[in-house]
Amino acid sequence: MPERALVRLRRHAFAKRSQFIDPYVIAECGRVLDRRGEVWAASVLGRDLTARSVAVPARPYLRGGEEYVLVAADRAEDELVLEDASAS
């Protein structure tokens, strides 16, 4: 995904963050991490993900709003793949 698209996506997704955790987004984020992996997530977020979650040590520690970024990036990349496939 182009860097400009990632910056736009991050900005839009961070705007969705709230003081309350959305369990549906957290569950979807877990599925995205399982499917894409932490290396992909680190490249999307632009930071190191070696710090672990206190609640779920098998998962990386995510800052507020990053779960939305990962879910949105996953959907955007899936859409790019589908567009490329339909153009072929």
Task: Outline the secondary-structure elements.
Elements: H1 3-14, H2 23-36, H3 38-45, H4 66-87
Q: What is the string of SSEs from the N terminus onward?
A: HHHH
- Structural class by secondary-structure content: mainly alpha
**Domain module count:** 1
Number of helices: 4
Principal-axis shape equals globular
The main sheet comes to: none
Uncertain runs: none
Return Rg in Å: 13 Å
- Percentage of helical residues? 55-70%
Strand content: under 5%
List keywords for this structure.
single chain, 88 residues, mainly alpha, 64% helix, 0% strand
Task: Write a structural description.
The structure is a single chain. By secondary structure, this protein is mainly α. It has one domain. The chain has helices at 3-14, 23-36, 38-45, 66-87. Helix 2 crosses helix 4 (66-87). It is globular and about 45 Å long. The two termini are 19 Å apart. The mean pLDDT is 91.
